[in-house]
Amino acid sequence: MKFTAEQIADILEGTVVGDPNIEVTKLSKIEEGTQGTLTFLSNSKYTPYIYSTKASITIVNEDFTPEKPIETTLIKVDDAYEGFSKLLEYYKQIKMNKLGVEQPSFVSESAKIGDNIYIGAFAYIGNNVEIGNNVKIYPNVYIGDNVQLGDNTVIFSGGKVYSDCIIGKNCVINSGVIVGADGFGFAPNKDGGYSKIPQIGNVILEDEVDIGAGTTIDRATMGSTILRHGVKLDNQIQIAHNVEIGKNTVIAAQSGVAGSTKIGEHCQIGGQVGIAGHLVIGNNVKVQAQSGIGRNVKDNEVLQGSPSFGYADWNKSYVYFKNLPKLAKTINELEKKVDGHN
């Protein structure tokens, strides 16, 4: 896909300094720019690269004035970083502007399909599914019976949404995500094994939820596993049955939340964090990476460690952790001196 400098300037409401007809087809870092690429300059420490870059077009701040000759065509905007981000979003929208139902695919006759939708090849849409407007379902996606998908939601290739789950508006479900798998419910039986407990609930994702690749969100045993408005999950996360995550909470990769735990609003949870079941995590909580949470957490706490405790206390304690061999040696020497005086 080609864009001229003039077209880009129109999109960004910027001004061209150089050749308005020069074309670009790719994006690049300013230090790695080549002919036919578009880049940007917003951080002053990268300014030297604008004099050597081979990028055809560079987006710069309105107040930028080169001190030496340059080869690249400039597009001046109020904020170069914001302008580049806007252009990325525009490009993404064009790239994802797919419409229609590809074949082979299966769409149940009882499914209700909105306007301007895309259903990719080998997708499966089950009975009584309701799909809103502008939804995009990429190839090899499975949508089970009675699922609801809100307007503008995107499900990338290989995503699975099991029966009865509800997905809100403007959600993104990336490749390999499973929404609505059975929760981990088993009861010991008299034979010494385990009997499966039927999982008859569902999963609800409210609006603006984003789920990273390879993440699994289990359906509730009864009721619903719920991710509130604006929740963002990274890749390869496990959310167990009957968990509830408050609005605008974010969780980084490889974390796991056990069953029936309630996490509050606006929390930030680092990578590889483990949270035990049946806990209540307050609002605005921050958990550092690789921490283990085994207790209820109050609002605004900042935690680290496994088992976790206060972040400030953890940092102070770590000073002693590092010096334990020296401390042990000192104690041994003191004990010998004390024994020698007895």
Short description:
The active site is at 241 (proton acceptor). Residues 21-89 form the UDP-3-O-[3-hydroxymyristoyl] glucosamine N-acyltransferase non-repeat region domain. With 342 residues, the chain is α/β, with parallel strands linked by helices.
Write up this protein.
By secondary structure, the protein is α/β, with parallel strands linked by helices. It folds into two domains: 3-95, MurE/MurF, N-terminal domain (Udp-n-acetylmuramoylalanyl-d-glutamate--2,6- Diaminopimelate Ligase, Chain: A, domain 1, 3-Layer(aba) Sandwich); 100-314, Hexapeptide repeat proteins (UDP N-Acetylglucosamine Acyltransferase, domain 1), CATH 2.160.10. It contains four helices and 40 strands. The active site is at 241 (proton acceptor). It comes from Winogradskyella marina. Homotrimer.
